[in-house]
Design goal:
single chain; 186 residues; mainly alpha; two-stranded antiparallel sheet; 7 helices; 2% strand; elongated; disordered N terminus
């Protein structure tokens, strides 16, 4: 299938597509940086017999940022794991309502744990230094509230779309709405 065919049937807005591309590029860059750091750490330890102190924490925190950026990316692209066994088990016909409630629960989770809890973690650790790195622990913890804010925005957008009957289930841009998770809502 050509890229123009996918784009023309893609229900996402231009901002959503841009966010997806930006998060994807960030994940690729973070992964590349993490691999380079670990490779340098191995070379320095095994060949030079002098492992730099900064490589361990740098790899660790690039991995943390990669995890949260990747989770946000997959949620925004609707490529995350969708747990729909309750809907199937109860044979609920109101998939639009279930989808809206699910997105609002995701919003509440992201707002409470990632945005608020992550914000508190940033505040508490902002002045705590990371040995070997020129950044604070709070700067590294920013991954939580940044990811939380983006997931909140995306989940609200998904909830509005589901309420309107657009993309209430998992969207596969190649085949359209999945019949296993979304019945016709028109």
């Amino acid at each position: 299938m050509s890229a123009s065919a996918i784009t023309s049937s893609d229900p996402r807005t231009r901002v959503e597509r841009l966010l997806g591309r930006a998060l994807g590029a960030l994940c690729v860059a973070l992964f590349a940086v993490m691999v380079l750091i670990v490779v340098w750490q191995v070379i320095a330890r095994q060949i030079l017999h002098d492992s730099p102190a900064w490589t361990g924490p740098a790899a660790q925190y690039s991995f943390v940022w990669l995890i949260f950026a990747g989770a946000t990316w997959m949620f925004a692209e609707r490529e995350h794991v969708a747990i729909d066994f309750c809907t199937k088990l109860l044979r609920i016909d109101h998939t639009r309502t279930v989808a809206v409630v699910g997105h609002l629960m995701t919003f509440a989770f992201a707002a409470l744990l990632l945005l608020w809890g992550g914000g508190r973690a940033v505040t508490i650790t902002w002045t705590q230094e990371i040995p070997g790195l020129p950044v604070s622990m709070g700067m590294m913890s920013l991954a939580l509230p940044v990811s939380g804010a983006l997931i909140c925005l995306v989940s609200l957008r998904h909830a509005v779309a589901a309420a309107r009957g657009i993309g209430g289930g998992v969207i596969d841009r190649r085949t359209g709405p999945s019949t296993s998770t979304m019945q016709e809502v028109a």
